[in-house]
């Protein structure tokens, strides 16, 4: 979606609001990374936050971009990544959600997000939310038109400490209406007895607080799930590499079973 306010919001030197990667990849998996970046457009002046706050998990999913890129390469899968911080606008929340442009996150007040007008909200959505989701929609439409099966997997990371509590899971699968992907991946990952795998932990998917899986996956009746990896395990490139390999192997194990029933469902 071309929007006249994009030129106002993004200087020529700034990256686009989303990045498509390997869209012609041959895998049935389509990967999303909604919280890939902690970048804030220059016009928003770091949202009034010190740089240290923008390095925290409140601004992005630490390590998720590296995992998603390597997973895309290992599977030869298309990947779409958002280009700006979720504190600008959260690409995995409905626009009607209070968390869409949040005023506070994990105890931090976001100065530039206070008392926004409807116009300001609409402009952020037009520049940083809709183009990303329009691109996902276009890719999924194209694959459907070509009769190609699609399994939608969204890659996220979560903070190991929240609300004063430690989270024990190394990785979690979140899912809701579609039960073909999440539980199968949990079973595959649990074959490694050293891994603590969350089943809809630390988060589950729901319509009020999620966007990509309900809208692009469930509404299209595509097999779909969201994977969450604990951020401290992704702090370095070696961890991102390890987890991309682990997820690629788990996906390769479960894809044949997932695709058989879903292909016939799409065809009917
Ligand atoms: Zn996330």
UniProtKB/TrEMBL annotation:
It comes from the Bacteria. InterPro entries: N-FG_amidohydro, UCP029730. Pfam families: FGase (PF05013). This is N-formylglutamate amidohydrolase.
């Amino acid at each position: 979606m071309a929007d006249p306010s994009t030129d106002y919001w993004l200087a020529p030197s700034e990256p686009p609001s989303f990045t498509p990667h390997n869209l012609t990849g041959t895998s049935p998996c389509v990967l999303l990374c909604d919280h890939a970046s902690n970048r804030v457009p220059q016009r928003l002046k770091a949202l009034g936050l010190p740089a240290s706050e923008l390095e925290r998990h409140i601004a992005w999913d630490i390590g998720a971009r590296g995992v998603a890129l390597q997973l895309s390469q290992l599977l030869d899968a298309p990947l779409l990544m958002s280009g700006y911080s979720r504190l600008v606008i959260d690409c995995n929340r409905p626009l009607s959600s209070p968390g869409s442009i949040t005023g506070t996150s994990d105890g931090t007040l976001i100065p530039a997000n206070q008392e926004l007008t409807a116009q300001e909200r609409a402009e952020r959505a037009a520049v940083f939310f809709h183009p990303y989701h329009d691109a996902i929609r276009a890719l999924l439409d194209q694959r459907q038109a070509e009769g190609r099966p699609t399994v939608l997997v969204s890659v996220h990371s979560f903070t190991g400490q929240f609300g004063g509590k430690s989270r024990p899971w190394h990785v979690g699968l979140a899912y809701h209406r579609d039960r073909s992907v999440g539980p199968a991946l949990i079973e595959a990952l649990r074959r490694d007895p050293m891994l603590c795998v969350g089943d809809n932990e630390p988060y589950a998917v729901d319509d009020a607080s999620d966007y990509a899986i309900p809208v692009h996956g469930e509404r299209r009746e595509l097999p779909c799930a969201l994977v969450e990896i604990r951020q401290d395990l992704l702090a370095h490139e070696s961890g991102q590499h390890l987890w991309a390999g682990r997820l690629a192997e788990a996906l390769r194990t479960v894809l044949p079973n997932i695709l058989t029933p879903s292909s016939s469902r799409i065809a009917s």
